[in-house]
Amino acid sequence: MVEQESPRVVRCGGSELNFRRAVFSADSKYIFCVSGDFVKVYSTATEECVHILHGHRNLVTGVQLNPNNHLQLYSCSFDGTIKLWDYIDGILIKTFIVGHKLYALFTLARAEDSVFVTISKEEPDVFQLVSVKLPKSSSQEVEATELSFVLDYINQSPKCVAFGNEGEYVAAVRDFYLSVYFFKKKTTSRFTLSSSRNKKNAKNNFTCVACHPTEDCIASGHLDGKIRLWRNFNDDKKYTYTCLHWHHDIVMDLAFSVMGTSLLSGGRESVLVEWRDATEKNKEFLPRLGATVEHISVSPAGDLFCTSHSDNKMMIIHRNLEVSAVIQGLVKDRNIFTGLMIDPRTKALVLNGKPGHLQFYSLQSDKQLYNLDIIQQEYINDYGLIQIELTKAAFDYSGNWLATVEQRQEKEAELELQMKLWTYNKKTQGFVLNTKINMPHEDHITALCFCNTEKSDNPTLVTASKDGHFKVWILTDDSDIYKKAVGWTCDFVGSYHKYQATNCCFCEDGSLLAVSFEEIVTIWDSETWELKCTFCQRAGKIRHLCFGRLTCSKYLLGTTESGVLCCWNLLSCALEWSAKLNVSIMEPDPESENIAAVSQSSVGSDLFVFKPSEPRPLYIQKDISREEVQWGVFVPRDIPESFTSEAYQWLNRSQFYFLTKSQSLLTFSTKSPEEKLTPTSKQLLAEESLPTTPFYFILGKHRQQQDEKFHENSENELVQLPLTENIPAVNELLHTPAHVLPSASFLCSLFINSLLLSKETKSAEEIPDDVDMQEEKESDNSDEENAFTEKVQDTKHTDLGEDIFHQLSKSEEKELRKLRKVDYSWIATF
Amino acid sequence: MINWIPGTYCSELLTVSLFRPGMGEFKVHRVRFFNYIPSGIRCVAYNNQSNRLAVSRTDGTVEIYNLSANYFQEKFFPGHESRSTEALCWAEGQRLFSAGLNGEIIEYDLQALNIKYAVDAFGGPIWSMTASPSGSQLLVGCEDGSVKLFQITPEKIEFERNFDRQKSRILSLSWHPSGTHIAAGSIDYISVFDVKSGSAIHKMMVDRQYMGVSKRKCIVWGVAFLSDGTVISVDSAGKVQFWDSATGTLAKSHLIANADVQSIAVAEQEDSFVVGTAEGTVFHFQLVPVASSSTEKQWVRTKPFQHHTHDVRTVAHSPTALISGGTDTHLVIRPLMEKVEVKNYDAALRKITFPHRRLISCSKKRQLLLFQFAHHLELWRLGSTVATGKNGDTLPLSKNAEHLLHLKTKGPENIICSCISPCGSWIACSTASRFFLYRLTYQHDNLSLKRVSKMPAFLRSAVQILFSEDSAKLFVASNQGSLHVGQLLEGRFRHLHTFQPQSGTVEAMCLLAVSPDGDWLAASGTSAGVHVYSVKHLKVFEYSIPGKQYTEWSRTVQKQGFHHLWLQRDTPITHISFHPKRPMHILLHDAYMFCIIDKSLPLPNDKTLLYNPLPPKSESDVVRRRTAHAFKISKIYKPLLFMDLLDEGTLVAVERPLDDIIAQLPPPIKKKKFGT
């Protein structure tokens, strides 16, 4: 069934965590954030992603707790729906179809049956705040079309709208004015700040707003870093405000503490400021948060704050301003100079991260593993400063060595260049600086590569530079009387007619080095550093250079700026074939002979996969992205796929990931997006939640038996999956919320039966069958579970028999369904 | 335009300024060597009944501003070296009292413009004084820690009793609006007194801590007692604190400055107050409801105003404005926008730095300028040139300005007024108790000065002095309301006549003007009536001399009204003169502009540009004529203290750049400025 689906481009993790304010659960145990089309539920204590709530078909733009039941969560999306979730179990409870593109969501305890959303009018950049009446209905999908207008011409960002004093009024800011709508009086007041062009007032623009929880006080943030506290605003004439000014740049977000005793603000300075008693002199700081504070949220319990940062990170901060947890996604707010690399040890994706850092990002768990500080200098976040940039990085074959290049160029003539070589320290499980080379070249380094031979115990690094040289660096003994040490030194400097060296590449066995000098490719013997031969096609400067691998190792591939792809045969020293293709990315697959090339055109980017030995591409995918594709990389698969179709065979051993200009990380997948997400975390939760009772021990034993059985017939990672779910009754028991379960006496026989049954059946095949059956029954209730069990089905037993094992009678089944549909709100009383 | 280095002495520029074709081209002496520094403001007291503001300066000068009349400084009491005022207050309606470090309480006579009496409080230097809410009692706080109550009688004040003596000086006092209790700020504590018993019922200790560091002392610079029993205190640790006087406990504290908070003033409605800090910032606090639904209110610091560079020693709160003054000598009146009904020129911020009276007189014949300082006079001869130039040129001086004379008065009293005769051979000046007349004789470059002796005994003090155009007569307005006319002949003074004030009034004449032929003398007093005297016939007239009516032109002006921008100017006109050769031209100026009015041209209406620049040469005469109107305004000289015609082609303008004044003040408290 896999073969039937054609590969398509999918977004793979790395989605933004900082798009909207995060929302805390009522007990501060969980934090919710929108992330692409999903809502992610994280544990505030462990930083783990507990659930991914998927169901929206477009970008999710807001989440809010249900004020009437704090175990439920509302979310809204560009797809025009508001969804109500049970976040503890990760189930979608209800969908309200509004029909407009929804930009932001607000809930209010006072307005029990309605929520507030921001919708756009026909004209661009004109937004309205409306209240949506959520009809009470038992069905899963409800049309909610009863909209009532509240405020017009507001800002689309939810930061610019705030409800105050238990919903007495709503404040919205945009450009230079603040509008306040009073629900009781049904009037709108508008306060305008001077917007004249003079220096003093030019940056008066409002950027965000927050309302005091109990007092009539509105805090607004401004472009010039001021915070204004508005009071008396129910009087159009006597209104007044106080200014608080510490930020020197735009105030990104504001939040009042739960009791309103302090105000939190953040901005580009990457400092969280707590203003106590709303007085200018009484403030506390939490500095060095790493990146611009984009959002601030406060837990309803008042014990935690959460800041979202521009480097795609959320920080959970204690009330006493101590960071307690960091949830870091793929850092995306900066230019990627290093390109995409794979750390050979962890198989993590490596690229520029925080300023001056390399980030190691796990593609499997969509989580940053760690940051390696390369530049090791304090970063000053200010506009217009010329920073040291980490421009190049390379790993050697085994992942023992990492080479990095950093540069800073303030003026034309003053280039600061530094190359660092890092060695992997097994003890500390991290990279340690080994050698620092100041000015390794006179000019920018254009390329660097390690000699990727497995056998070679003497690692070799080659750097190519605009100064016309390429240098070979080798590891030598650097011991002295104090300690044994190794260090890198320059071994050979090569050049070719004073041309700029633009690319360098070792062949697979390390015997040859290819260095391109503008239009000319030179081949050097890596033993003697002799120039062996040159290729010149006179088709523009060489942009990429790479050797073929495995059976194609006799070929050398190059692309030129004028849009020609050339393949030279190293044995005959002649051009094998060439093609007219404007290649912007050329990446060899480390696991096969395949080479992927992405060509750029005005409409989009196309992908070509080919073998150097034949000029005919294996696979062409047109229009993989509307944007420019900047970087790509092949990531070896842990478990090879088995596509039989010739066109997709290139995806069998590796997966191709690429990064577009807007920094979305994309890949090719044949699975539906729901399947793609590993539900292991969810299952782990179920497992974790098992208390150590006698019941648990029965299950534990039972699992061991299952384990053994599975060891016999499968050796892949599926074994690691918790197996409790294979028993439908147990599965049901663990995955159904306690409050919708039938009585224990009802379940008892079911449970006992299931245990007995599993012993009787020799194979486990019938068990998932039962899952299937139950899923069908409950599919109207829970999409979430549906997806998850389908997964189980997919991965294990795709060829199930037809016989259905009836555990419940029809009446029992009905009973169960009825129980499931009861209102969950009573749980709020806990 | 002009490279002017602050603080350089002896600076004069001769420039050419073309006002308008037909109005003439003038050579302008831009004089910047008048090294005048106003004294810092120590106290302000606002009188709600008359809408007047009393301002006392560190040299003991007291000025009265009429807030209804465009903030004109209408009265002034000269300073005295030994009388530094520490407190100023209005009582019994219109009576003004001051107290100072010499231990005396002084009452001012607002009619005769002199000191009515001085009473020693016998408690050492007086630091604070306040009138009771009814206005019938006066309370002073002294150096020795005593609080003394005085009863105000119609003629004098009488000591009534002492309150419980405190340990250290009483720096601030405030009555409860009901008059039953008093709050007194001292060093490190605030006392609350019961007026009936005179005993302290609470002693509220003020925290010495300042930003975590313990200071030596915490001086309570100001207290305010509100009717709900709250006492607001401001202190040297930068705090504004709210105390509950019933329990003697601290209710709330606002740390607002890194330096002293020196002054506080509460609005009459008690819904807002203002404090001034040593950093030059004035903070406004307002009482706002906590939530619209509740009646609970809280004090919130709302807006800071930074109009001062130095200590704000004193603040006042009028119903519509915040008034502040301090060491940097500016009196700042900041209207409260929410209280202003109409957006007119009352809603504009005002900064008053220079006195509205004349400090400079000029001898046209000899091109001399006489500058009046607090305790001395300076006589300067203007520079001259032979060069000519076109509009905007700066002409080279062939001869620099010359300091001819430095005349120091004896005694501690400040000079009230001074004048140099048009011929340059007479100088007259007066202090509060002595009148001086000097005869100057010029022999080539030498100058000799001789005091005229044998002055009549009644010429003791003058409010205004004027010489006639031919320098043959001297007119002296005394503070008793009489006008003395004297003849100057051969170095001697002969008393001719005394115009007695109309019966029953003792109004002092503040302004004097004489007609060019010397026949007519106009005088104006504090009640704004104009008296015209015929010097020949020794009679009194009023207004238009023969017809006793406004002239045709002023009737037109009255009918048509002035241009709205002209009416929106917020500084009073301080000098008017006429062009001797062109009778249609009136020259007048205030601190920010100089204006020539050509009565022959049509008056501007609201649609025309009032401040029209020079019309481009390219435009035809017709266009030029059409856009021309009676007002020609020049704003290049500012702040302008004095401007007059020397002869028909030469103007003299005396400027006093504010930077020069600031440069000569003590350095302000250094504040870290972001990004420096």
TrEMBL record, chain A:
Query: Taxonomic classification, please?
Result: Eukaryota, Metazoa, Chordata, Craniata, Vertebrata
SUPFAM superfamilies in UniProt? Tricorn protease domain 2 (SSF69322), WD40 repeat-like (SSF50978)
Partners and quaternary state? Component of the proposed t-UTP subcomplex of the ribosomal small subunit (SSU) processome. SSU processome is composed of more than 70 proteins and the RNA chaperone small nucleolar RNA (snoRNA) U3.
WD repeat segments run 53-95
Database matches in InterPro entries = Beta-prop_WDR75_2nd, WD40/YVTN_repeat-like_dom_sf, WD40_repeat_dom_sf, WD40_rpt, WDR75
Protein name per the record? WD repeat-containing protein 75
Q: Which one GO biological process term can you cite for this protein?
A: positive regulation of rRNA processing
Gene that specifies this protein: WDR75
Q: Which GO terms describe its cellular component?
A: small-subunit processome
Summarizing the function annotation, the protein's role is:
Ribosome biogenesis factor. Part of the small subunit (SSU) processome, first precursor of the small eukaryotic ribosomal subunit. During the assembly of the SSU processome in the nucleolus, many ribosome biogenesis factors, an RNA chaperone and ribosomal proteins associate with the nascent pre-rRNA and work in concert to generate RNA folding, modifications, rearrangements and cleavage as well as targeted degradation of pre-ribosomal RNA by the RNA exosome. Involved in nucleolar processing of pre-18S ribosomal RNA. Required for optimal pre-ribosomal RNA transcription by RNA polymerase I.
Alphabetized GO MF terms: RNA binding
Q: Which Pfam families match?
A: Beta-prop_WDR75_1st, Beta-prop_WDR75_2nd
Indicate the segments forming the WD repeat-containing protein 75 second beta-propeller domain, all copies: 340-663
Where in or outside the cell is it found?
Nucleus, Nucleolus
Q: Which domain of life is it from?
A: Eukaryota
Q: What is its main location?
A: nucleus
Which parts of this chain are annotated as the region Disordered?
Answer: 764-795
Q: Identify the keywords attached in UniProt to this record, alphabetized.
A: Isopeptide bond, Nucleus, Phosphoprotein, Repeat, Ribosome biogenesis, rRNA processing, Transcription, Transcription regulation, Ubl conjugation, WD repeat
Automatic annotation (TrEMBL), chain B:
Q: Species name for this entry?
A: Oryctolagus cuniculus
Q: Could you provide one GO biological process annotation from this protein's UniProt record?
A: maturation of SSU-rRNA from tricistronic rRNA transcript (SSU-rRNA, 5.8S rRNA, LSU-rRNA)
Give the matching InterPro entries.
Quinoprotein_ADH-like_sf, UTP4, WD40/YVTN_repeat-like_dom_sf, WD40_rpt
Q: Which GO terms describe its cellular component?
A: 90S preribosome; small-subunit processome; t-UTP complex
Any coiled-coil ranges, and where?
none
Q: Which GO terms describe its molecular function?
A: RNA binding
Taxonomic classification: Eukaryota, Metazoa, Chordata, Craniata, Vertebrata
Q: From the Swiss-Prot or TrEMBL record, give the protein name.
A: UTP4 small subunit processome component
The protein's superkingdom reads Eukaryota
